[in-house]
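Colleagues,

Please find the record for the two-part complex below.
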Amino acid sequence: MTKTLRLLSAMLLVAGSFLAHGAACAEQVKLTWFMWSGSTADVEAWQHVASLVTEKYPDIAVEFQTASWMDYWTKLPALAAAGQLPDIISLQSMRAPGFADLMLPLDARIKADNFDIRAFDPSIIQGLQKNGHQFALPYDFGPWVMFYNYDWFTKAGVALPRPGWTADDFVRAAKALTHDGKFGTAVPVPDAFMAFATSSGAHFLNDQGQPDLTNPGMKAAFANYVALATTEKVAPVYPSSGTISSLIANGRFTAGDIAMYVDGPWQLLNIRKKASFKVGVAPLPVRQAGSITLSAGSGFGIAITSRHPEQAWKAIQVLTGPDAERFLASAGRAFAARTAYQVYWYDTAAKDVEGAHEALSAALKNARPYVTSPNWNTVASLFEQYAPVAFAGSQPPDKLLETIQSLATQ
Amino acid sequence: MVPAGRVVRADRAVPAGRVVRSGRPDATRRRRRPRGDLGTAICFLLPSLCGLLAFLILPLLASLLLSFSNWQIIGSPSFVGFSNYVTLFTRDPVFWEVFGNTLLYTAEYLVLNIVISVTMAVWIGSLSWGRRLFRVIFFLPVFTPLVGSALVWLLIFMPGGMLENVSAMLRVPIPNLVTNSHLAIQAVIIASLWSHFGYNLLLFSAALESIEGSYLDAAAVDGANGWQRFWRIRLPLISPALFFGTVLTAISGLQVFDQVYALTRGGPGSASSTLGYAIYTQGFVSYRLGNASAIAWVLFLIIMLLTALQLRLQRRWVHYDL
């Protein structure tokens, strides 16, 4: 009798443990989410957003995995080749042509759930599409704008950049602010330059959507851009290194070594954390084609290999949902892709930022979606590696564009 | 006890089937022993053999196959024959520059590394105190992660960095190494030397210490001065260590990657790009795995040829018989 009881209780225990295990499994699905980050402030913000998913869906946990911007685009295809893609992939609109194939199209799910896609800015919804299919839901977007050191400008008595300011005003201000090893501006590549070229009326893609960097318009624009470092000497020369040029510019700007530089509104979080001065924002200066900037953004999609696509779909709705957008916009990490939440970027993140509202409004009016080629990662990397040669004056800018073009399209 | 070598030869000489049929006890003993040994040997070798197969032989073969394909990581590959190699040698606008950079880097780094480490080893060996301390100090950079030390070198070399400040203070014009296309490779060489010469220093120090004092005493009695003792006695006696250090340094020089990646990313332009770094950019920035594998095989062949050449030349200058 005792033996039978013991056996029964043992069986119950085993069954119980299996049940408990099963229940635990049913309780929480662990999703992996891969996202780039540039600072601890970034990581903290994303981890908070990941926790919002579990708050809404206790049966889903999102594990945040990160890499630096450059390494992200190296690691992502390597993970794909190894069959180890995370469940949720982050996608930038400029990389969508090259990487969307790693992700599941969301159209059927959007339709089935009657998901309100109109709540987002249409240009970034379009930016995360390939061949008419939606591959990611956006969390942010924004036009490249000019960040400037308000205190430095006012102290030097230089007129603040305002919507409508011209290329001449820009060079004049940069010259006035360049002295004692400090510079008026910076020349990061390729994004800030592509915006510069677009304002100059140049096109960097041909009709087939492939890089066309050697047309006369691009050559002239690059010569003018390079001249800021070589002849005008209002921008510092920088080496080709493991740090991308926009981050070098960001670092020198927040350290107070550079008076103004071009970047996206998503950088406000990092700028605010690091800068000890009042920051201002202005649209790009007017050039031949006007004050035309580029706009791009990023979002999250589901990996084609995910074993939990349903849960991942729920998760990306939260990651780009109202609470996440409110948080990211307020922190200055994202100019919200949900148009109704952009107010938090203006009112909270950019509260003390001079001219933010009028600058962003003006820039958005004249922004073009940053449409790129499938090999844009190569183009961007080549610009990082080769542009410093031109800035150092070692090679003429037009020859350098020819080198980049031939390497990008070989 | 029959030596192992003889057993194997006996086994080869007598076919297995015949031995069993002959039924001779000594022949059976000969057969059993190698079988037992072979099983044990396989058991002992199997783990490392599996490792060798999984992590060396198979990837090597896979990369050879890949070099004949146009695989771009995303999507499926197709066979393209020798097209990657042809592109590399005839159409790639920077391959020959990168190839030249690699040879320049290896030659300069090898010569400087050996000269500095031998000189320092002799100098430290002549000290009456602090030999161990200096060896530890100079060996420390070998422990330091290359990427970390390369970043520190970047802070020193970059515009507005320490080197520029020092040159301004001393009023000595020093050109900027990392923004100058002609000098960027020198920045990589300096960072590499700092990181690696400690290993050879330790190797040569140990070789110098093991030289019998009587050789040097005898030479001194014969009237040889310090310079002659170094060239005629010390250097020939440490030549095996010198050869070992030269081969390894040349191989690591040809394979250089970390310093280039962290310090210059091959730039400005392709000024400091090496074959090792080109493999990375082709494979993981441009996602052209076929091209990357082709470069990897070119590098593999260069290393193999150079090492074979060194092994051949060593007969002329390495003395094992002293």
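Chain B touches chain A at residues 73-75, 87, 91-94, 151, 154, 157-160, 176, 178-181, 184, 261-271, 281, 284-287 (CB under 8 Å).

Comments are welcome before we finalize the supplementary table.
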